[in-house]
Amino acid sequence: MILSRSKPALQKTEAVQSREGGSGKSLPKLDDLLQKRDFTGALTLVEFQQSPEKADFQTLEWIGYISFHLGDYVKAYKIFKDLMKKKPDSIYCVYFGCVCFFLGHYEESRKSFENVKLQDEHHKRLKNRLLFHLAHKEGDEQKLMSYHSQLQDVQEDQLSLAAIHYLRSHYQEAIDIYKRILLDNREFTALNVYIALCYYKLDYYDVSQEVLTVYLTNFPNSATAVNLRACNFYRLYNGKAAEAELTKFECEASRSFTYAKEIMKHNMVVFQNGEAALQVLPPLVDVIVEARLNLVIYHLKQENVQEAYNLIKELEPTTPHEYILKGVVNAALGQEQASKEHLKIAQQYFQLVGGSASECDTIPGRQCMASCFFLLRQFEDVLIYLNSVKSYFYNDDTFNFNYAQAKAAVGNFKEAEELLLLIQNDKIKSDYVYLSWLARCFIMNQKPRQAWELYLKMETSNDSFSLLQLIANDCYKMGQFYYSAKAFDVLERLDPNPEYWEGKRGACVGVFQKIVAGQEPQDTLREVLTLLRNTANPQVEYICRVIKKWAKENRIPTN
C-alpha cells in the first residue's frame, strides 16, 4: 500500500548516471532518500530520471507518493486522478481517496473508492481504515462502529484507531495504544511525538515535554516536534519563549521547506497575543480547526462580540474547549444585547462541560460550573467552585473580578474589597461594573469617603450618574447620611427630579440627627445648610430654621 510504505517497492534501485554521462558521478539511491525521509531529494531524483516523452505508471506512482508525503496534496491529487482514470477499479482509487481526504474533499474521497473490489488484504485494510476516518469526519456513528469492528490487531489498524481516539478527545486510550506498540517496536521513536501530543491535550505539559525530548534528541529538526515543544513552552512559560523556539526553527529551515508552515504561522499569532491575527487566521479557518477558535478569541478580546458570534454560531462543538468558547460567546452576546435566550444557551453549555464525567474535576470544568451558577445568580454555589480553584488564579485579574462579585453578592464585602483592590488591569478598573462594586464595598465597609472619591475621579457620563445614584442610595441605607446628601445634591442639580430632593432632605435631616447624637462632627452643620439652600423648595426654610435654632442653643456657629 503505497501511502504507508517505509521502503520503496523496488528493493534494488541501481545508481543512475547523469543523462549527460560525462561527469562519472552517480546519483543517490531512491531507497536511501526514502529511508531518510528526504522526500524533497526523492522527488528531485524521480523527476530527473523521468522520461521526457512519457512517464510510466511506476514513475507516476512515486511522484504521487512522494508529493503526498511532502504535503503537496494538489499535485498528488492530479497524478492519482490520472492514474485512476487509466486503471479504474484498482488500488489507485484508494490512493486517490486518501489524497482527497487530506484535501478535505470527504464526499469525493468516499465516492472514488467505496465500491471498488480489492483482492490484496493490505489494500482491503487500507480501504477500511480510510472509510473509518471518513465516518468520523462525517459524524456517522453507526458506520464508524462498523468499520471499527473490522480493524485488526496489526500496527497500521491500531495506529488508525489511536488517531480516532485522539480526534474524539479520548487521549488516554490513544496513549495506551501508542505505548503498547512502542513497547514492541522501540525503533518507532516518532510515536513519542504522538504520546507527547496526547499529554499536551491532557494539560500535562511537563510530561509532554519530557516524552518529546526522547524524539528531539535524535531528530532535532522535526517540524512537528519543534512546534509541539513551542506549544509546551507557551503553556509552561510564556509566549516569548514559544515564539523564540519557532523563530529559531524557521531561520534554520530551508526556503523550500513548506511542511507545517500553516500551523506554525497560526501558532505564532497565538504566541504573539493576536498580532497579525486578521491577516493570518481567516484563510486558515477551514484548514486548521483551532484557527476558527483563536479568531473567535481574538474578536472577543477586541470586544467584537458579534463578529465572534458569526464565526462560531454554525460550529457544532465536539470538544470541551469548543463548548466552553461557545458558552463564553453566547454569554458575552447575551450581556451586550440583554438577551435571555443567549444567556440561557451559555448557561447550558457551561453546565454540559462542568457536569461531564471527564471535566467535572478539572479546573476548566469547575470554572464552567461557576459560570453556570453565576448566570443563574446562585452565588453561594458559584463560590463553592471558585474556592476550589482560587489557588491557581491568585494574580489573575479576570478571576479576581468574578470572584469579588460573587463574594459581594453574598454579602462578604470585606473580602470582595480586598479582591477588587488586587486587580491591576486598567481596562477592568475603568469598567463601570468594577467601579460600582468597589464603591458598594467601600460603603458597606464603612468607607463612604473612598466611594465618593471614586465618583470624583470619573468624567461626566451616564456611568458617573449611575454611580452617584448608587452612592446616594447605599449610603442612605447604611446611615452614612453626609455622603448620601452630597450625592443627592449633585443628582438634583443634574436632574430636577422630586425624588432626589426627597432623598437629599432625608439625608440632611439624618446628618443633623447624627450631629445631635454626637456621632458626626458639628462643623458638618454648615455644609448641610449649604446643601439645603441649593434647592428652591418651601420646605428648605423650615428645616434650616430648626437646624439654626438648635445650633444657636448649643452655641455652634453656622455662618
Keywords:
mainly alpha; disordered N terminus; elongated; 559 residues
Structure description:
By secondary structure, the chain is mostly helical. It has 32 helices and no strands. The protein has helices spanning 30-35, 39-49, 57-69, 73-86, 91-103, 106-113, 121-138, 141-149, 155-167, 171-184, 191-201, 205-218, 223-236, 239-252, 261-271, 277-280, 289-301, 305-312, 320-337, 340-354, 363-375, 379-389, 397-409, 413-422, 426-429, 432-444, 448-456, 462-477, 481-494, 498-516, 524-533, 538-553. The longest helix has 19 residues, at 498-516. The relative contact order is 0.03.
Biggest sheet descriptor: none
How much of the residues is beta strand, in percent? under 5%
Low-pLDDT runs of 5+ residues are 1-24
Number of strands: 0
Structural class: mainly alpha
**C-alpha-based Rg, rounded:** 35 Å
- What general form does the structure show? elongated
Q: In DSSP terms, counting alpha (H) and pi (I) runs of 4 or more, how many helices? A: 32
Mean pLDDT: 89
Q: What is the end-to-end distance?
A: 103 Å
**Helix proportion:** 55-70%
